[in-house]
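Predict both folds.
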Amino acid sequence: MSIGATIRRGGSGMTMGEAMTDPSIKFLVRLKGLVESANGYSAAYIHVSSLPSARRTRDRLSDGLGVLSNLKRRYRNGDIYLMRNADIVFLVRNAPGEELASAGRRIREVFLGKNAPTGDEGEGDIVTLFQLPQDFDSLMELAEQAAGLTKLAMEPALDKQEINLATLAQIKEELQKVDISTMLFNQPVYDISEAKPRIRFHEIYVSVRVLEEMFCPGLSLTSKRWLFTDLTQDLDGAVLRFLTEPDSAPGIGGMSLNLNLSTLASDRFVSFDTELDEKRRRSTVLELNKTDVFENMRLYRELAPFLRQRGYSLLLDGLSFLNIAAIDFAGLPCDYAKLFWSGEAAHLDDDAARYIAQKIKKPDMPRFLLAHCDSAESLRFARSMGIDLVQGRLVDHMVKKGIPFS
């Protein structure tokens, strides 16, 4: 089913794009829908958010949008997106590169003046032009940053209203009809134990923000934990169905999947398991949230030996550094354990940090992974703790730019 597939609501047809109110999410989902059909598309990305506040005036923004509106009148298939961080994107098909470049020059003049430098000089890189599919990954990275993606996890509801049972039932029904691939994202986990970092596996996850914008704008999916947990079971099924469809598995080598324990004990997972050959099972990591595991320890201990025998690796997700100090891993069989960088980690006293580091380095412990590595401090901390599996936007940036980790 395509990105424009119709969702039924109260008897009236509504596309997923119409259901979304945030242009950043609209653009992200549109781009995801072009993964297999990006030939001929190009884009102009205007980095308004990178400008000094004095240059980000309403008049300049309006004039910049006007330049792109004029271009859109010539190319009816073009779309303009004003992102939540004030960046602007124009996505179009079969438009000559010189047309986009000319529009880019006019937009530079709008924001920077006629004598603004271009290229790498000063602020001249306010406009970036992309040709798809060759520049697809770079454009996707900007889209994800502008959308402020969050992974499928319990998070504060902020100012959104709570979801109710009726809305949950509607979302669960719609999940059976939509293309789940437009909501799936991946972030690599890197092994930095050697001079050249290498990808250990890619974490496949669903964005809460995209889910909310697609199905319930203005409502929080995570405001009621028990309703959210119920929804994740349906999401698990949708993801597993997608991954077993012909030619649908992401070509990324090893992958990790965030699943519920109840999903692993279901017929749906049995069907998924039978579709995988031994090589794919051995390259698949099953991520289980610590709360799910601790609340259902008997089930976990029953399933863990079978899953590992089938070739899967198990990852205990959502741990804090204080959890590491308290947990007896001898009675909790797993291959990986994921920690999240936070202020708590930064302020561990010396004795606690020393004890945890010694425990992490023991040979009978799982391999530890530090996620949310978005600062130099987080990477230094990982090194000091003996953690050589890391994940985060700074890690992605350093690998992309060839910046050494040591």
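Second protein follows, with its predicted structure tokens after the sequence.
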Amino acid sequence: MNIDRLSGGTPNTRTLGKTATHSLAALALLLITQPARAQTTLPPDVAPSCTVPAADFNRWFATGNAAKDGIVLPADSLSFTGDSACAFYRWSQQMFLWVTSPLGTGHVFETPQFYEVSPPDPQNGGARTLRAPTAPGQFLSFASSISLVGDKGQEVVFDSTGKVHNVVRPETGSTGRIALLNAANQLAEVKRVVTAQDGKPLLLDKTDRVIDIKAAPSGAPELRNESGALRDTSGAIIDLLPKTVLVNGRPALVTTAGAVIDTEQGQADKSVLMARNKSLVYYLLQVNDVLAYFKTGVQDAKISPTQTEFPTSQDILDKITTVARQAPAPHTKQQFPDSNTLTMELKSSWVETTDLANPGDYITINTTVPTYTQSADNKTLTPAGTKPAKLALVGLHVVGSTNGHPEMIWATFEHVNNAPNQQYTYTTASGAPATKPADGAGSWLFSAAGASDSPPAQRMTVGANNTIVGANGQTIGLVDITRINPWGSDSGSASADTNTQVISINKSIIEQLATGDVRKNYILVGAIWTDGKPPGGSNLLGTIAISNSTMETFQQPGNCFDCHGGNMLGSGGGGLSHIWGKTSPLFP
């Protein structure tokens, strides 16, 4: 079903009789609350607080008119003026329409303007490489796991309050579980952690009996750090707080520095998600050509080594262009087709179209994905080669630097069929407050139920040798997903205004896209940025509780800068861009 039928403008009620007006109101209510459609519907009475005028929208298109599947020009990041939150949302929408524009037999993101970023190479210190596709569908790095790291290149988790924690791995025993000396100085392995009535942690052994711990002076269990862990000296005692926090619904130990102890390998990141058509969700990471040559120029000292931020001005862009022109064959490039985009990163999520109810409603590509063999107990998937597949786009992060914003604008988009929304508030065109009830059950791609009050618990993770395993002994399978903060805002006092702006620009874009344009079926969930300085908590702007249900599924609530922080470029896999420090230059 086309979303423009759900979010179209309201007729002129001044020409309607009283009965017709009441019928219209009933229809509007039906559109908002009807769960059987299983789509994210936009309230038809939302205040038009952030729109794109028709004349401006037409200028976004290469032909000067909004045509079905028309090629959209990129937003001009060099001349970007962030004079309002709406300006950032407009930039996000235009960039999404640009990168997903059909071009030849593919899309803009499938052209050599975008380089594929390989997964980390464990045999080479986690290094990544760049590769430009030579033809649509020539991607090689599709993976089925979501990898999350913090601002120091370390794994992170979110507790039940949304607070982010770096992860510390303690020493383990023969079964891979936490190993510690109990009060009798005997080695004991911890099966799981629970919380006592007083809030203190209880460690249970493999028979689910409470371990008589050897306690530190604080009363917390005494653990030692594993060899090679990032935060603590190898073998040193980990200083724990005598309490636990909930991570994915499970009690976890916390250090005095605020880090979480990972009681099981794979808990912290590498989550794996499955759609209701039984397809794993696959992920692709890309950067544009400007970023690829910027990385190369900085690393090869052809751009000043004092450059510590993503480029935002013409002078740095000129230096990047010089690097491209002077590059050895076959990397020589006289100019960038769309240099005014500045540097960009894309992360996308995909499912196979097999058994997808409405594949024509998705942006699709033909490519190759990993295959797996299922164990007899359905608790493990083992890599077994690759296969050709047609994939449907379900989520997309669009990230880019602009004039005045080296921290980049971080925007995310989802397909309208993904998952039910929790309840949210917004402002109507008459200025009245309104509440959109939580979505009910329906044919959602990632849920058989209506919206839940809490984030879903992780079910699958990546184990050793790239196997996919059930978390905590679970089988391979589905979980019901909810979008906790539908428009990237929490329940604070400003959330209604922010929700209204994001809903408003979605409505403006969808109504102006031509009938039959598949991009109508994608919505901006939100965008986040800062005052131009590194993210520091108090300077976050935009939708500050933003997450994508297909890429931050088990980290809701949270936002991009919970993981992407520290110095602007980052080193060793940390910072704003986690790929910056680990990515090899295009050429020596």
